Each structure stands twice: as structure tokens, then as C-alpha cells.
Amino acid sequence: MDHASAQLRSAFFVSDSTGITAETLGSALLANFPGHRFVRQTVPFVDTAEGARAVAEDITRAAASGPTPLVFTTVKRPDVKAVLAASAGHVIDLLGGHLTEVEEALGATASEQLGQYHGLGDTERYFARMRAVEYAIEHDDGQSARALDIAHVILVAPSRCGKTPTTMYLALHHGILVANYPLTDDDFPTEDLPPMVAPHRARCFGLTTTARRLSQVRHERRPESRYASLAQCTSELRRAEDLYRRTGVPFTNSAVKSVEEMSAVIMQSMKLPG
């Protein structure tokens, strides 16, 4: 890996709507470059030239302190796009030629009305995602046992293995009802899953990682603590993986997968609709 690829590079996802489309498509493209590290920023509701100028200033500041930022955009208004194009970033129009191709195929001109990706035709899916996000917040980190019987999946893992980001991604992007439960020292020794989630074994999915990666992540939260020590991380992961195998809970390693990849593995394993 060369020095340039090792540097942190800013990646902006700019949208005239919620930013979900820009972030999803942009992240899917970036996933193909695992040797590069990115500081990601989603900027929704950029629907005026004035708003675009403020974003362009942020892009310029990022360019002044590091490699040229990547700017993924789904903005449709030409005047707004022009301001972004004049920024110091490398702008990638995620609609670009594709929208022109669709126009040609349909023999029609695309509407410039904002928020078309989330129009009336998508209302049911939109509200399903919002309900899923509310459910994920209520059931984050084992906070609530209420309505666990309606969860599509319950993520089980030691602390800082990626439960919450994966939960929120599945909820926000797919409308899947996800709860998550942290495995702690209090849950061991045990032959079965913790009592809160044991009745719902068929909907449980486990996450693991490498001890070194887990130790690094925990050191960022509690430096030089027993909680972050390599020995503690190794012990917790070994016990968790033994538990998954003993109880027949499928699991995946979050250290080698993006949140998008983990979500895809979970959905496929649990036979959840996309």
C-alpha cells in the first residue's frame, strides 16, 4: 500500500433529500477499495445554491488538510450541482449518465422535483424503516425485552463487536426489526443463551471479531482498562464463539466485513427479505 492510499481521505455524500441513496451507493463504491481509509460525512437536504456553497466550503477545508475529498452526490438541480462541481473535491454524480439513459429509454425528461426517491410510491417502505429505527433504539444493548417476539433478528455479541451500527443499518435501509443484546461476564458460565433472548433462539445471530481489533476499539473508549485488555477481549470472544456453536446460533466476523457486508450475510442467513 502506498502512502497516499494510507492517508485518511474525506468522503462527502451530498443529497437534496435524506442522503440515504447517496450514502448507500457511494459506500458501495468505496467498499471496493479496502486499502483506503475515509472520513465520511453525509449532508442531506442540500437543495439551494446557498446550501451548496456552505458544503463547498467544508469540502475546501477538507482538501486543504488532506487528499482531495470525494464528493458523491444525487443532487438534481443544475445550479446546485454547478456549485458542488466548482468545489475543491472530486465530484461523482451518482445519477449522471444513468439518469440520461433512463430519459432516453422512456422518451421523457426526469422531474426536478426534490425528494423523488421517497415519494408517495415509497411511503409504506419509508414508514416501515422509521418503525424499525424506533424499534432498534428501544432494543439497543438489551435495554428492553418488550416485543422481542416480533423481532426479525436479535444480534448477540460482546461489547463493541458492531451490534449497534449493524442494527441501525438493517433498520434504516431495509426496515428490518432488529434488537441487540450484549454478552457480558454476568452471562457466563452458561450452557444456554441469556434468559432474555433464549426463548427467541431461532431469531438470534452472533457477531464476533478478532481480539486485537476488539482491544483497539475498546481502548478508544476506555484506555488502558481491563475491559480493553487483549486478555479480556480474547476470553470474551472465545466464550461467545463457544456459546454460538453450542446453541446453534449462526455468526459472522465483523473485523473483516463492512456493515453493508455483514447486513447482507445476516439477511441471507436468516432468510430476510431485502
Brief descriptors of the model:
4-stranded parallel sheet, 10 helices, globular, alpha/beta, 274 residues
Q: How would you describe what is shown here?
A:
- Helices cover 43% and strands 15% of the residues.
- The protein is an alpha/beta fold and 274 residues long.
- α8 packs across α9.
Largest sheet report: 4 strands, parallel
Structural class: alpha/beta
Helical segment count: 10
Please write the string of helix (H) and strand (E) elements: HEHEHEHEHHEHEEHHEH
- pLDDT under 50 segments (min length 5)? 117-121
Distance between the termini: 35 Å
- Bin the strand percentage: 15-25%
Q: State the helicity in percent bands.
A: 40-55%
Rounded to an integer in angstroms, the radius of gyration calculated over CA atoms is 21 Å
What spatial order of strands do you see in the largest sheet?
2-1-3-4
Mean pLDDT, all residues? 87
Number of strands: 8
